[in-house]
Write a structure and sequence with these properties.
Blueprint lengths: L1 H21 L9 E9 L2 E11 L3 E8 L2 E12 L5 E12 L2 E4 L5 E9 L6 E7 L16 E7 L8 H16 L6
Antiparallel strand pairs: 1-2, 1-9, 2-3, 3-4, 4-5, 5-6, 5-7, 7-8, 8-9
């Protein structure tokens, strides 16, 4: 009986920790790497662009005149708005393998949405420096808009019930039998 109470207590603590830390992320659905293209008026204007999001860091990788450039910064989101809002402040720029501080004025305001479900989900992201783009920019025929697919799979892509069930079975399986009496 004592062993059962300890197991239930440990599982409860695990679920509590997951619940507490999951609230720290601006929009967990963004987390990961998104590869795609930028569109404006139905034409591709940026080929093979990449946005990477962690819990609070954003990295934008793109090519200009055959030179690969990466811009690093912090972001925040507001999912209560429709479409969702994103604000990005870039802190560093990397070009030719050299990282430099970014211009402090390098801030973007944007809107984003998701289309599709599961592995077919696409990110539509429109950002601008002077103002927040209107919702109509989230269309390839209008733009400019980045349209990307998530590459790779992160824990955040798994449904919560599947994650918790998998964690519990691993944890309970690790304990094995109740042991000697």
């Amino acid at each position: 009986m004592n062993t059962l109470i300890r197991k239930v207590g440990t599982v409860f603590c695990l679920v509590l920790v997951v619940a507490v830390f999951s609230g720290c992320d601006p929009d967990r659905r963004l987390r990961g790497t998104w590869d795609g293209n930028e569109y404006q008026e139905g034409s591709v204007i940026g080929l093979n662009d990449r946005w990477e999001f962690s819990s609070d860091e954003a990295i934008f990788r793109f090519t200009i005149n055959r030179q690969r450039i990466s811009v690093f910064g912090r972001y925040s989101t507001d999912r209560m708005k429709n479409p969702h809002h994103i604000d990005i402040t870039f802190t560093e720029v990397e070009a030719d393998g050299v990282r430099r501080p970014a211009d402090p004025a390098l801030r973007l305001k944007g809107v984003y949405t998701f289309k599709g479900r599961g592995s077919g989900r696409e990110l539509y992201l429109a950002v601008y420096d002077d103002f927040r783009p209107p919702e109509r920019w989230l269309d390839k025929e209008v733009g400019p808009v980045f349209v990307g697919n998530k590459t790779g799979k992160s824990l955040i892509d798994l449904p919560w019930s599947e994650m918790i069930e998998d964690s519990m079975s691993k944890m309970l399986g690790a304990w094995g039998s109740p042991g000697p009496k």
